[in-house]
Amino acid sequence: MTVRPIDASEHLDFVRGRSSVSFLQTPAWAAVKAEWRGESIGWFDGTTIVGSALVLYRQLPKLKRYLAYLPEGPDIDWTDADLARWLTPMAAHLKAQGAFGIRMGPPVVTRRWHAGTIKQAIADPVLGSLSEVPADELDDTAIGVVATLEQLGWNEIPTTGGFSAGQPKFNFQLPLAGRDEDAVLAGMNQLWRRNIKKAAKAGVEITTGTRDDLAEFHAVYAETAERDHFTPRPLPYFERMWDAMTAEEPDRVVLYLAHHEGDLVAATTMVRVGTHAWYSYGASTTAKRDVRGSNAIQWQMIRDAMAAGATTYDMRGITETLDSDDSHVGLIQFKVGTGGEAVEYLGEWDLPLNRALHRGFTTYMRRRG
């Protein structure tokens, strides 16, 4: 197995031949993350490409040494019992590019909890986190990957509530394979079904927008950030995301707008790569929350994802808290109402290539955080 750089078109051709990969592993994502240097790499068995990855390089101040980051990647055969034949040549290539360390997020699911299990766990005062709840599904092969990574010198990055500095370890997903709209709707809880009906009765209209509508989306997004106490991304970030991703595939990212009597009450973005669709960003106004624009816009995205052939609708990260007194539990309860499932990934892992530089970088990031 050999690893070498590939151009964006070769990378995209490989992605198109897969059922799906993370949108963070598409060539276009390099243009979105402009503060990093992007490189597409491929794994070759002889002359045949068998794996790919987008690598983002973050330079150390004043040194031409880099952290090589593969968000939700690489896209390789994680079921291979001999993972070293994939990861060892990757590490050698990245080290040759000046990397002092590698960070990756293997797209491997270890555990799944169904909606009913989570609902019962939230009601149980003894249980404080998702990790304390017996999983409905456990992947022994994925657990084996953990042991292999540790043997190869990789270290899992600690998380707080399921979140690290990078991508979330816990996500919430709605399975769509083999289901029609009636089945998905029937799987939702009574509150979700009632709110969808309420939005329709109130006259909430869902439309898709263009690049020119991003400013309107961003205004509502900024309002949401202030209300929910998080730091919003600037408008140019979303414009860059739109330009890069729609250039790669015209329907890679779609902007949704929910209006009520001419007022924008909610706005979201959905990203799709093959059979996997992600609810990536969402916003809603404080005014007119009673018309349930957020439920209506989610239902439209789910329906559109199904129509496009998606088998998974991904609502992205959740914390693992189940404490009813924790403000984050409301996000889990909102997503659980869809009837989906919580999934735990392997998390993000580090491989130091230069231990002194890696230790210094880790200390700097910990102090900055």
Automatic annotation (TrEMBL):
Keywords: Acyltransferase, Cell shape, Cell wall biogenesis/degradation, Peptidoglycan synthesis, Transferase. One of its GO terms (molecular function) is aminoacyltransferase activity. GO terms for biological process: cell wall organization; peptidoglycan biosynthetic process; regulation of cell shape. It comes from the Bacteria. PROSITE patterns: FEMABX. It holds the Pfam family FemAB. The keyword Amino-acid biosynthesis does not apply. The keyword Ribosomal protein does not apply. Belongs to the FemABX family. This is Aminoacyltransferase.
